[in-house]
Amino acid sequence: MAAAQPMASGPKGHWFWGSFTDFRQRRLAFLRELVSYGGTVGLRFGPFPVYMANSPEAIHQVLVTDASKYLKSVVTRRTLKSTLGNGLFINDGESWKRQRRLAQPAFHTKRISSYADVMVQSAEQMANTWQSGVPVAMHHAMPQLTMDIITRTMFGGSLSADFSDIGDSISRLLEIIMARFDRLYMIPEWIPTRENVELKGIVARLDSLIQGFIEERRASGEDRGDLLAMLLLAQDEDGSGGMSDAQVRDECMTIFGAGHETTANALAWTWYALSQYPDIEAKLHHELDTVLAGRAPTLADLPHLKYTEMVLKEAMRMYPPAWGTTRDALEDVMLEGVPVKKGQTVFVNIYGVHMNPQYFPNPDTFDPERFSPENEKSIPKYAYLPFGGGPRVCIGNAFAMMEAKLIVATLAQRFSLRVAPGQQVVPETVFTLRTKYGLSMIPQARATVAASAPAVADPAL
Ligand code: HEM
Questions:
Q1: What is the tens place of the pLDDT at every residue in 52-99?
Q2: 319-350, pLDDT tens digit by residue?
Q3: Could you give the number of structural domains in the chain?
Q4: 255: CA distance to ligand 1 center in Å?
Q5: d(Cα 111, Cα 427) in Å, to the nearest integer?
Q6: In a domain, 458, yes or no
Q7: Which positions ≥6 away from 181 have C-beta within 8 Å?
Q8: Residue 124 lies in a domain
Q9: Which residues' Cβ are closer than 6 Å to ligand 1?
């Protein structure tokens, strides 16, 4: 008699919906609970089986060891296809490999270093509009800032640059996409619902805008130093040429979609966490006052802003903008001894592993010391993965960290922020982890502190 197949048993859930209601209605608590059921846990979302990869080992297997046995999930592709086309985020197989190879140089540290000034300028412009005591809607301000930066780094060299429509269009697009992710069944896009018609209109507007930028650049043939230039100039080593206009367009849309809201949320949560832990904020201010002494940060300061980086890493542990990701099995696979059939979905539980006390004691405490150079070494691989992992790790990882560090350094040097009275701060997970009721905060200028900063390093930092 054949041995019984090992089962991955999770909570039973609702008789019809299975765990889909838990996943939808109390997502973060549920993702944390799942960890106690094991490294790999089987669930049911309505009629669909879903496997949760909860442990660093299971996550490593899905994203790294067995990466070639999985595709981006059907849900992800179906929801994003009409917007991102064949862009890196949803592309797969040989086509993804070639696009990743072509796009990679655009994100090399050397190339993105030239964007540091734009990042600081944008942050300074925003800081100049803030006034002590006047509330700022951080849930709007941070996306506005990261959108400004990604637009300027992507198309900054364009002569006919009119960026005014891009920000609003992308923001609305993301809202529609987010609403779609949260449905078990998708309304086909050919049905002219209000949402579908609006989506098509926005995509068409953005397409024509981007196409205009591409045509202008193709005609001039110049490298104007921005991301668009890198995408247009990229050539395959085997001499098979570069990207078609359609591929460049898809990558532009993907970079907008993947690289704006994520960083904005990481920043919003960082400001919130700092407001709750004044001692940590004071230590951050001390580093900024010591390293910068009142001047604007530059690329050269980044290696010295160690505590700033620790603060950001800890904020992304507690509030990972990408709280999970999904894959569909391309063939039958064994995940930690659990059989996953071809076509079935595996969910990588990033939030669950980040909040697992086994790896992060007192996980609800905001403690940047977890990421001090000594302590960071003891975090098991794949217990912390805000940027994912394996071959599909975030291509904008270094861009995002540089941007977030420069923004925090610029703004925290000048202001201290506190949550506005009456503001409820509740996390909400849709596409990224955001604040459900927004995040209104009150800035207080720190002008005198910066001016009188002593130029000595604190050995504790
Ligand atoms: C804090 C900010 C960010 C976070 C937390 C983040 C997170 C992630 C994660 C988790 C993935 C992998 C998804 C998966 O495995 O399914 C990913 C992929 C990706 N990210 Fe980011 N990201 C951030 C910023 C950025 C930025 C700034 C850019 C571009 C400028 C970017 C572009 C991309 C792209 C193109 C992919 C797809 C890569 C591929 O599949 O080859 N991201 N990101």
A1: 999 999 999 999 999 999 999 888 888 888 888 899 999 999 999 999
A2: 999 999 999 999 999 999 999 999 999 999 99
A3: 1
A4: 8
A5: 35
A6: no
A7: 75, 79, 430, 431
A8: yes
A9: 88-89, 100, 254-255, 258-259, 262-263, 266, 321-322, 325, 386-388, 392, 394-396, 399-400
337: domain range?
20-451
Check which CATH number belongs to the domain holding 253 and give it.
1.10.630.10
Residues 223-244: tens digit of each pLDDT: 888 999 999 988 888 777 899 9
| Token pair listed for 423 | 């503001």
Residue type, 98: R
Closest ligand 1 atom, residue 400 Cα:
27
Q: Quick check: is 2 in a domain?
A: no
SS3 350: helix
Q: State in Å: Cα 350 to ligand 1 middle.
A: 14
Position 456 in a domain:
no
Distance 460 CA to ligand 1 centre (A): 33
Q: Report the distance separating Cα 283 and Cα 254, nearest Å.
A: 37
Choose among 405, 413, 407: nearest CA to 289: 413
Q: Which amino acid is at 357?
A: P
